Amino acid sequence: MNRPPTAAELNLCLCHSCGLACDMTGEPHTCPRCDAPLHRRKTNSLARTWAYLFAALAFYVPANLLPVMNTTLLGNGADSTIMSGVIEFWEHGAWDIALIIFIASIAVPGIKFVALSLLLVSVQRNSAGARRERSKLYRFVELIGYWSMLDVLVVALVAALVKFQALGDIEPRPGILFFGLVVVFTMLSAMSFDPRLMWDGPTTDDAVEDVAGH
């Protein structure tokens, strides 16, 4: 069964900065267009991805347990965690803001933890199944990563709105710092993962061809 040659067989490498397909013949290996260093693979991809993922998980606990903001209205102040803030916004009729905070703060990090763990385990087990689906899953993780800071922006917007209307005051609390670290480390984890590892080894079509040849 015929197949087109791979980039490795053609001695080509895609520049991570500008996307140019570069010839890896000779030294040094730098992009001729943007002069960025070229790497066939991300170095220590699995180890770095696991490390960043575990760090994000460690910060995820205090991010949800510690208060993220203190709201003072008419002289009465109260600390709010992410979940209590979601409930409070929902009870006051601001279901759209509550939904945004819940998705960005609870759902998105949880999805990224599960998805990245699944991708890492499947690569370490040399799984050859559902490679296209796993590639789509990785692209989905990259996509939702851009929206991870939505709730931090919502908190800043609500704080500005409250102060503008002279209704009270809102101050950040340590939980928002831990959540920011969760966002940073989950993004680093996704960036450190090399999706080409999923395609190492013979594909299903190659395996069929080998069996047919014998």
From TrEMBL:
Statement: the UniProt record of this protein carries the keyword Secreted: no
Coiled coil: none
Main location: membrane
InterPro entries reported for this sequence: PqiA-like (IPR007498), PqiA-PqiB_transport (IPR051800)
Pfam family, one: PqiA
UniProtKB keywords: Cell inner membrane, Cell membrane, Membrane, Transmembrane, Transmembrane helix
Localization in the cell: Cell inner membrane
Domain of life, source organism: Bacteria
Ranges annotated as spanning the membrane: 50-69, 97-123, 144-164, 176-193
Keyword set includes Translocase: no
Name by which UniProt lists this protein: Paraquat-inducible protein A
Organism: Pseudomonas ekonensis
Lineage: Bacteria, Pseudomonadati, Pseudomonadota, Gammaproteobacteria, Pseudomonadales
